[in-house]
Design a protein that fits this description.
Elements (H helix, E strand, L loop, with lengths): L5 H16 L5 H9 L18 H12 L3 H18 L4 H12 L4 E4 L2 H7 L7 E6 L2 E11 L7 E7 L8 E6 L5 E6 L11 E10 L4 E3 L2 H35 L7 H23 L2 H4 L1 H26 L6 H19 L4 H14 L3
Parallel strand pairs: 1-4
Antiparallel strand pairs: 2-3, 3-7, 4-5, 5-8, 6-7
The structure holds flavin-adenine dinucleotide.
């Protein structure tokens, strides 16, 4: 069964370029993905979802990434926030936010890369909380967050105490007094993703908005879902570039035939291992395997984009064919730097090797 319906594919194809280059194009994506019913995929039925296994949502990410990585990353952000709710013990907050997020009426923004780096020992927490008259007040900044819709968003952040200790994870609504959304970042790609920085000065964070009291418990628990979903980004991009490479060389024999067959087979094998490992729960229990797959995803996409370039030759820097290639090469660059970045993945894998040498 097709993951995306034809009308959505048509819609994405028409806008892929604009979604990458124009901030204004981002506003329609969330509503269009919600209209296709995609945010419910892979969410338990008891929470309003389709009940399909985790691989189903990754297939959606890959399907979107074949046409537009911007749309796929907006989907990732919304689904990643939904994963935060699925792991939260705060049922009141889940009941309040889940229907809005599933319907795309509210945008979910996981502003957690700083917290993930903090847990990996790579950064300090950039948001701190201090208790004033019994209420926690948040101060600091979030350098990057995607899906910050001006019409309404909720962002997930981690905040420690004044010394950066005992971090908790909190949802902050867009209209919280003291929260300031900066203008969209001047990105060279994925400009239609509503990506910006946030400043917090004295933002009240009552318990009603707490996703989890212990970031050190919560973040490792949601990380496999975040990372598993991201694996779909490069899978879709690799498929798109391989298809474009085949189209570019036409039906005749090409010097690149062997490389293309090998990368197509590697991409198929990758998809098989990823989907099976997510649905049978193995990848959740084996962090090293999941991180290796996440790293491999970046390599596959980069390899496919490189092959597309070789297949196009000089046309890669010309006109319509060149524009699509150029977008995909920028999208591949993004995969190297999105948290966990390739550097962070290598760091995590090195730490795991020290803890549990093979
Ligand atoms: C379009 C876009 C959207 C984004 N959306 C979001 C979002 O929604 N939410 C969110 O939270 N973030 C988001 N981000 C942020 C992103 O995911 C990463 O956090 C950020 O791009 C990478 O951090 P970094 O620049 O510190 O790179 P890193 O790879 O962490 O660091 C880069 C540099 O630091 C050095 N370095 C790092 N670790 C070590 C080490 N252990 N030892 C030695 N040197 C080291 C590297 O060698 C390199 O020079 C987004 C980014 C982009 C581009």
């Amino acid at each position: 069964m097709a993951v995306l319906d034809e009308s959505l594919i048509h819609w994405l194809k028409e806008r892929a370029e604009a979604l990458d280059t124009h901030p204004a194009e981002g506003d329609a994506v969330l509503a269009r993905l919600a209209q296709a019913g995609l945010f419910a995929v892979g969410v338990p039925q008891a929470e309003g979802g389709t009940g399909a296994g985790p691989a189903a949502a990754v297939r959606v990410v890959a399907g979107l990434a074949e046409h537009s990585l911007s749309a796929a990353f907006v989907f990732w952000a919304q689904r990643a926030f939904i994963e935060c709710l699925l792991a939260s013990p705060n049922r009141g907050l889940v009941r309040k936010l889940m229907p809005e997020l599933l319907q795309g009426r509210l945008a979910g923004a996981p502003g957690l890369s700083n917290a993930m780096k903090f847990l990996g020992g790579l950064d300090r927490l950039r948001v701190s909380g201090s208790t004033v008259s019994g209420t926690m007040r948040l101060d600091g900044s979030v350098a990057w967050a995607t899906n910050l819709h001006r019409q309404g968003f909720v962002v997930a952040i981690a905040a420690g105490d004044e010394r950066g200790d005992n971090p908790s994870v909190i949802a902050v609504p867009h209209d919280a007094p003291g929260l300031q959304r900066e203008p969209d970042l001047d990105l060279l790609a994925l400009r239609g993703t509503n990506t910006a920085a946030l400043r917090l000065s004295g933002v009240a964070a009552g318990e009603a908005w707490q996703l989890h009291p212990q970031a050190r418990v919560f973040l490792p628990a949601i990380r496999p879902a975040f990372i598993g979903l991201q694996c779909g980004l490069g899978l879709g991009l690799a498929r798109a570039s391989l298809r474009a490479a085949r189209h570019a060389v036409g039906g005749g024999h090409s010097m690149l035939a062997g490389d293309m067959l090998a990368l197509e087979a590697a991409t198929d094998d990758y998809a098989g291992a990823l989907f099976a490992g997510l649905d049978d729960g193995r990848l959740c229990e084996r962090p090293r395997e999941l991180l290796q797959l996440r790293l491999r995803m970046v390599e596959l996409a980069a390899g496919a984009v490189q092959l597309e370039l070789q297949a196009l030759g000089g046309r890669a820097l010309l006109g319509a064919e060149g524009r699509a290639f150029s977008r995909r090469s920028r999208e591949a660059a993004f995969l190297t730097v999105v948290t966990p970045t390739v550097v962070q993945l290598k760091n995590d894998l090195a730490q795991l090797a020290v803890q549990r040498p093979q």
